[in-house]
Design a protein that fits this description.
With 91 residues, the chain is an all-beta fold. 0% of the residues lie in helices and 54% in strands. It has one domain: Immunoglobulin-like (Sandwich). The chain has no helices and seven strands. A hairpin with a 4-residue loop joins strand 2 and strand 3.
Length: 91
């Protein structure tokens, strides 16, 4: 996509944790992960939350899985029990 691939996050839950979007690029018949990462919103939920965004440059024609989680930015620890199911998109 010209201009990159933007990920937007809004944290509205007052739980002391950060909102996180976890992503992975998968390919092949086994759908193995070839690249992965996370985008964090560390701004907190004060006053209804603040939007944070990150511009990624994903390769075209690939499957990318996304999920939303909560985590501790301080310890770079994503709490897997808070994660949504993965949602797949194609670039």
């Amino acid at each position: 996509m010209p201009g990159g691939d933007w990920i937007y996050l809004l944290d509205t839950k007052k739980d002391g944790l950060s909102a996180v979007v976890v992503w992975r690029i998968v390919e092949g018949p086994s759908q193995h992960t070839v690249r992965e990462g996370a985008v964090w919103n560390t701004a907190g939920s004060k006053n209804g939350g603040q939007w944070r965004y990150k511009n990624k440059n994903f390769p075209e024609g690939r499957n990318i899985d996304f999920q939303v989680c909560a985590g501790s930015w301080r310890f770079k620890n994503i709490q897997s029990s808070t994660c949504s199911a993965y949602k797949r998109m194609r670039t």
